[in-house]
Amino acid sequence: MRREYKIIEKYEVVPNVHKFVIRDPRIAKKVKAGQFVLVMANEKGERIPLTLSDWDPKEGTITLYVLELGVSTMELVSLSKGDSLYSLAGPLGHPAKVEKFGNVLLGGGCFGIGGIYPLAKAMKEAGNSVTVIIEARSNYLLYNREKLEGVANEFFTTTSDGSEGMRGHVQDKLQELVKDGRKFDHAYFMGCTFMLMQCARATMPHKIPTGVALNAIMLDGTGMCGCCRVTVGGHTKFVCVDGPEIDGHLVDWDELFIRKHIYREEEAVSYQSHACRSLTGYEREAKGGGEA
Q1: CA 279, CA 195: separation in Å to the nearest integer?
Q2: Using CA atoms in the order 70, 210, 251, 228, what is the torsion angle rounded to 10 degrees?
Q3: Pairing state of beta strands 5-14 and 84-85?
Q4: Is 247 part of any domain?
Q5: Same domain, yes or no, for 153 and 123?
Q6: Band of the pLDDT at 285, cuts 50, 70, 90?
Q7: Does residue 186 form part of some domain?
Q8: How many domains does the chain have?
């Protein structure tokens, strides 16, 4: 008998970012900050890695934030409360390194705004002074503020258009804080690959040890397929089993970008094609014409 992974709660928190609360007592009891799961929306779908953003061992639930970017995430966000995922595997990857560092800086963007919360909470419980910075293109894309403010000693927002907080990005606020004399003993960033690279490069001159949650292409999540390989300090690592936290100062970013973008054109065509077919299906259903 197949295990059921029922969606207890699901809604769009900001445009294109969806919050899922899913029942899985096994994962809820074992997960630690920084780990992820592999999710399949349906039997013919792709397995995609998603960061565990929260969990409740008593209720047996886990929380995920999904950014709709392609076909697989589109299929996932099309599910509703009461539906079930086809497959859910985890927790996977190493937990993030959590100890009493002193002053810790955490940065999040896109899905990382949700994903950074468990680490902020764990760092605070370990006795650290926690500074959290989040970024978005505009203020209407910022979310999860109350939860982050609840565990952070300091909380800052940045927006590309200057509609809230500092105009700029996480690394810009970081540079401002350091210029003002702030000292940080450890940093950790979660978000798109470009953001991770920029933040890691910003901390390097100040010699702040920096972990980044890499989001490489991933299939099996066990290190067997090799899709998520990345060069770190001249050595090959696999994000699924050696990460997802990787030393941001040692990542070969140029190589990682090449690998992540190798199928960009095909992904765009596939997404547009599926989106058009889905729209046609919705229109037919609204007119009583059945499925596409």
Answers
A1: 32
A2: -40
A3: antiparallel
A4: no
A5: yes
A6: very low
A7: yes
A8: 3
110 with 208, same domain?
A: yes
Report whether 248 contacts 203 (CB < 8 A): yes
Report, as an integer, the average pLDDT of 223-233. 80
The residue segments making up the domain with residue 70 are 5-92
CATH number, domain of 18, equals 2.40.30.10
Return d(Cα 128, Cα 139) in angstroms, integer. Answer: 28
* Burial bucket for residue 262 (CB in 10 Å: 0-12, 13-18, 19+): exposed
Output the 3-class SS for the chain.
CCCCEEEEEEEEEECCEEEEEEECHHHHHHCCCCCEEEEECCCCCCCEEEEEEEEECCCCEEEEEEECCCHHHHHHHCCCCCCEECEEEEEECCCCCCCCCCEEEEEEECCHHHHCHHHHHHHHHCCCEEEEEEEECCHHHCCCHHHHHHHCCEEEEEECCCCCCEECCHHHHHHHHHHCCCCCCEEEEECCHHHHHHHHHHHHHHCCCEEEECCCCCCCCCCCCCCCEEEECCEEEEHHHHCCEEECCCECHHHHHHHHCCCHHHHHHHHHHHHHHHHHHHHHHHCCCCCC
Q: Residue written as tokens 């985890």? A: 90
**Domain end point (choices 38, 67, 92):** 92
pLDDT digits (tens, 9 = 90+) for 113-124: 999 999 999 999
Tokens encoding 264: 């960009």
Residue 122: which CATH number? 3.40.50.80
pLDDT in tens, 41-51: 888 888 889 99
Q: How far apart are CA 222 and CA 92, in angstroms?
A: 8
106 residue type, one letter: L
